[in-house]
Amino acid sequence: MAVAALSSFTSPLSSSSTVKFRYSFDSNSLFFLKPLHCHCKFTPSNHSYNHRQEVVGKKKKPRECKDERSGKGNLVGPQTAAYKSFGISKKDKESLIFDSKDQQVEPNNIQDSAFLNAVVKVYCTHTAPDYSLPWQKQRQYASTGSAFMIEGRKLITNAHCVEHDTQVKVKRRGDDTKYVAKVLARGVDCDIALLSVESDEFWRDVEPLRLGRLPHLQDSVTVVGYPLGGDTISVTKGVVSRIEVTSYAHGSSDLLGIQIDAAINPGNSGGPAFNDQGECIGVAFQVYRSEEAENIGYVIPSTVVSHFLTDYERNGRYTGFPCLGVLIQKLENPALRACLKVQSNEGVLVRRVEPTSDSNNVLKEGDVIVSFDDVRVGCEGTVPFRSNERIAFHFLISQKFAGDTAELGIIRAGQFMKTKIVLNPRVHLVPFHIDGGQPSYLIIAGLVFTPLSEPLIEEECEDNWGLKLLAKARYSLARFKDEQLVILSQVLANEVNIGYEDMGNQQVLKFNGTRIKNIHHLAHLVDSCKDKYLCFEFEDSYVAVLDREAVAEASSSILTDYGIPSERSSDLSKPYMDTPEGDQPSGKEYDDSPVSNYEIGFDGLLWA
């Protein structure tokens, strides 16, 4: 959707801390309220939080917790045990319940249905990383959500329900025993997680749910889970309002989604949605609310769930949805099609190709994609979907698995040809999520280096970053696999780094004249350095020089003074394997178009 306007306001979370939000609306006058640094249009319906946040030196609002407050453009956030701490007044709570009570139904007529017993409550204890102080974690907090049983003694829930999990427990309906669960796989992009429970007692006398077909418009849907407002199971009913490619807030991705008008509230996350036959058609995961729109909930369809499960079964782990790796432009204008020698009313124009994708070896800027696996692509970037519907072109890409091959029909300089491309998950130069949970870091004489990531940008507040570095984060593509933007996060004051104490949130470009590829490369360069001085070159031509022998002498005392267990994260202790750079010149710091669909303010461009 094209964003028509942007503004911001400051939302008080407590008497001593504030968080900025971006306030935007699209061309249809539907309002979105989102964290300033989170590039997503929707907020997960989320699980219920019982959270106490405490960080030495400053108070933080953890990035998993979305603010929930009344007013224009509000998106439902987490349920909290102490509403005040997250900006929810008693009046707001009553308003939220009033908004959904007309769709809340008593489950008396279905209370004996077997599928209700397969829906369980999830209790999760989270310990999120501290991206500003990457050697430690934030204070743990607790949340609740929903999940349901499937074949093979497994459970399905949302990935955001068990993000940064320390302990996960589940409880069956009508039972007072909580069973310990293990997270087998977590799909951030599709917001799905797979759990297992070893206890035989947990699985006794329960029939697992069956995944049903993709529903049609106006089909009845029943959402079951454990949302706010009580401890027992909740059932709400509605109909399917829309089926289209949807923005997934947690994964910052675009996949098929089902829009429904059944009430979805905090705590419903991970709960199943059923059709009239008792088949599971999807997983409740996010909602959208504003003064201009009501009862807009979203369900992950069974086709996406099946894709996740098949991926896990094939590889023994989750590898992710693949991408084509091209920025495409719609060809609605007849003169534009004529200029490109496209005779028919179809096709999309390739405007940019990601260097790390296989498309970089096959496609060129100016190519027109007219078919994908023999399915014709319309000039609006859509393809046929079921009988009388059309859907976004990258829906076809999401049906593939990592490593699959797709056949493209393209027009290049007026000539039609077919070519094959291997599809793989997208490589992000600035990742939205950190694999493994804990960020990498390297401390040299009190200079703290870490890779740039969206969680770090959000935690530090966007105002604390230079415009040039933010432009790189928003407009730069990775030129080769494992490329990172390494930044100096802060300087831990010591005699050895006098004069550099005020440095922070600056990209380091070179070490002793060698361009830095990633933080592991920087650690390797420092470890193998035999020169008298360590010379770090930063953006804007700033240079920091340290005496190598003085650095070695001061390192242990700095770690002791600041209570830091190690000078580097454990992953940097492994041997460094050099990564070949791409063919693109490194002199160009950032490109002309954003790297994310959420940053593109024009509906005619879209990343596939």
Strand-helix topology:
Layout: E1 3-14, E2 17-26, E3 31-35, E4 43-44, E5 48-50, E6 79-80, H1 90-100, H2 114-117, E7 119-126, E8 141-150, E9 154-157, E10 165-171, E11 178-187, E12 192-196, H3 200-203, E13 220-225, E14 234-248, E15 253-260, E16 272-274, E17 280-288, E18 296-301, H4 302-315, E19 326-330, H5 334-339, E20 348-353, E21 368-372, E22 375-376, E23 382-385, E24 389-392, H6 394-398, E25 405-412, E26 415-422, E27 442-444, E28 447-451, H7 454-460, H8 467-475, E29 486-491, E30 506-511, E31 514-515, H9 519-527, E32 533-538, E33 543-547, H10 548-561, E34 605-607
Parallel strand pairs: 5-6
Antiparallel strand pairs: 1-2, 2-3, 4-17, 5-8, 7-8, 7-10, 8-9, 9-12, 10-11, 11-12, 13-14, 13-16, 14-15, 15-18, 16-17, 17-18, 19-20, 19-34, 20-21, 21-22, 21-25, 23-24, 25-26, 27-28, 28-29, 29-30, 30-31, 30-32, 32-33
Region (Disordered): 569-596
Family: Belongs to the peptidase S1C family.
Keywords: Hydrolase, Protease, Serine protease
